Amino acid sequence: MDAQTSLLKASRWKAWEPVLWLLAFAAPVVLPSHAAMINEIAIVALFAVSLDLVLGFTGVVSLGHAAFFGLGAYTAALLAKHVVPDPLVGLAAAIAASTVLGAVASLTIQRGSDLTRLMVTLGVALILLELANKLDWLTGGADGLQGVVLGPLLGTFAFDLAGRTAAYYSLTVLLVCFVLARRLVHSPFGATLKAIRDNRLRAMAIGIPVGSRLAVVYTIAAGLAGAAGGLLAQTTGFASLDVFEFHRSADVMLILVVGGTGWLYGGVAGAIVFKLMQDALSAITPQYWTFWLGLFLVVLVLVGRERLLKPWVWFGKGTK
Description:
By secondary structure, the chain is mainly α. It is built from 16 helices and no strands.
């Protein structure tokens, strides 16, 4: 089987994939009381998919992905509060701002070891966190940016208190971004990313422009993370320093540990498991839920994801 045939085969949608997305879009109707949770899962899943592009498909470790998430959140919130309340305009602005930041930040990941990249990417997020804290006249500082009110989606669908419109909005954006990311990783460009992940020196030796490939995929991933941040600010009506915090980057890394890297559904699966466990454990033990979540992660690493999450792993092997 030649490379072109292999890419075409991998890019074909499996029979279970449309069913999975239909179930996702049916969830707000079937579980109307959990629409807010579905909205959160969709946002976190998009954030995880964006990180998987650089971590799972390119092998670039990042602990500062919250920088793009937070910038997208504040951009969408500021635009809605001071300029125009249209959700789609705000989302486009959030993606644009994060993409520009990603293009600039991509210069920092092209040299050095994994440890160096961890520190540099974390530093970018910390810089933006401090800026958001000091520019309190614009961002609200430690109090956050409050009073963000959006207009109806497409001029028709108002954001309701139940969160159903927000859930469908986030699910739609997730699906569009997922399709674009899926098309990217199953293209010749995506094949070069996997070559860089497997052996960067060999990729350079066969003529792959490693630097430009890293810059492009990091910029795209930043735009997707910005979209997730913009969705969070728009659907909650609030943006705070929390969107830049270290735990944002750490949580999305844990989500990929749970769901698996190198296949886009890993971010979706990890987001579902992580958010449901977080919700359930915090309801049972509000003070110690992080202990049980940490214990689950330890068991996951010791026992192996293949044994604990066999259905998802089987699906993952079918989509790689």
